[in-house]
Amino acid sequence: MDYSKRDSKQWARQNLTGQWTTMVTPFTKDDRLDEEGLKRNIEHVLSLGTKGMGFSWNMGEFWSLTKEERLRLMEIAPDLIRKRAMAAFQVTDTSIKDVIGMANKAEQYGYDFVILGPPYMVTKTEDQVVNFVGKVAEKTNIGIAFYNSPQFGIVLNVKGLTRISEIENVIAIKEASFNTQIGIDTHLMAGKNAVVSVPDEEIFFYEQYYNFHQQAMFANTSDWRFDTKTKHDYVNFIDLATSGQMDKAREAYKAVYPVKSVSRKWWPRIVARTGGSLPVQMAKYWGELMGMAGGHVRPPVLELTQDERDGIKKDLIGLGLIPAE
Predict the structure, then answer these.
(1) Which residue of 79, 165, 185, 223 could cross-link 193, Cys pair, CB 3.0 to 4.6 Å?
(2) Residue 216 contacts residue 243 (beta carbons within 8 Å)
(3) Would residue 25 count as lying in a domain?
(4) How far is CA 170 from CA 13, 67, 72, 135, 144, in A?
(5) pLDDT for 77-134, tens place per residue?
(6) Residue 325 has pLDDT above 90, yes or no
(7) What is the DSSP string of 124-177?
(8) 245-262: b or e for each residue (b if 16 or more CB lie within 10 Å)?
(9) How many angstroms separate the Cα of 147 from the Cα of each of 1, 78, 111?
(10) Cβ(91)–Cβ(103) under 8 Å?
């Protein structure tokens, strides 16, 4: 962390750019953290040209990890990256003491910032969320990115997100409600206070109509699900779009769209079958087909059915992303 709390917003505006990935937390067959698999995954993502990595994020299954596992993950990731990319760690929890403790440890371990969502129990109102984030910010120096997602049980509107963006060391908003209008309005209203990122590639195509600019895409799994070590269409598109080269980005998106279409086929299908849960099991299996370490998911997440696995594999073969057997 090379900024002061007072200068954190300026630092973010200058440094949070390009594609940020969400790293899954791989498990071994006997249900331990797969540290060797994590190491291979980091090297794979680095080969794609990704700017930053998020650990213990929602796709990282933070909610299924023991406290010891979570702290171990926090400890080892920076040593594996070795400053070849930026790194952030999610500290969301129901205990504010644990949140503050993890945020301060993340600063000690050298993370660039932390991400924080609502505590997903008891929290039912905007005022509760704003108060919670403010209390954490008071006790920490590291920059905080606020995560707005239905996975936490509450989705803030643009008014609440703007209030959060005004907190001194809230440096970014990840607006993942998947409500396009909330995403656009957050850019327009909260974007003057913090870096705003909507994890949907098509947000870039609204920029010229609403006069905003998204400088970072964080964090999603599309880099390692869409790209290979020799073909970086997705990361290239994000690099162009986040740097404002939209004419070139539109052309580059033509290569991304076929894979995006397959992702849109399976993502909502798995979400619907599991009652709205984030499709971690789909991402892990897709990643394994692409050469990543993944492993199983822990309950209450349900594994893919065999038909789902066969269908995803068939589609990736059809795209030419993986070889036919």
Answers:
(1) 165
(2) no
(3) yes
(4) 12, 25, 25, 12, 5
(5) 999 999 999 999 999 999 999 999 999 999 999 999 999 999 999 999 999 999 999 9
(6) no
(7) -SHHHHHHHHHHHHHT--S-EEEEE-GGGT----HHHHHHHHTSTTEEEEEE-S
(8) ebeebeebbeebeebbeb
(9) 20, 22, 17
(10) yes
End-to-end CA distance of the chain: 46
Report how far residue 56's alpha carbon sits from residue 16's, in angstroms, rounded to the nearest whole number: 19
For residues 118 and 152, the answer to whether their CB atoms sit within 8 Å is yes
CB 262 within 8 A of CB 256: no
pTM comes to 0.97
pLDDT band for position 1 (cuts 50, 70, 90): confident
> Given CA atoms 69, 75, 80, 81 in this order, what sign does their dihedral have?
positive
Token pair in block for residue 191: 């974007």
Q: Are 187 and 210 in contact (CB under 8 A)?
A: yes
Q: Which of 88, 48, 31, 86 is nearest to 234 (CA)?
A: 48
Is 211 inside a domain boundary?
Answer: yes
**Assigned domain for 298 exists:** no
| pLDDT digit string, tens, across residues 231-264 | 999 999 999 999 999 999 999 999 999 999 999 9
Asked if the peptide bond before residue 219 counts as cis, ω within 30 degrees of 0, the response is yes
Tell me the CATH number at 110.
Answer: 3.20.20.70
Give the count of domains, the chain.
1
Integer Cα distance of 105 and 195 in angstroms:
23
Stretch 18-28: mean pLDDT = 97
Q: Residue 38 domain-assigned?
A: yes
- Range 156-195 burial, b when 16+ CB lie within 10 A, else e: bebebbbbbbebebbbbbbbbbebeebbbbbbebbbebbb
- The residue range of the domain holding 42 is 8-229
Residue carrying the six token digits 């692409």? 290
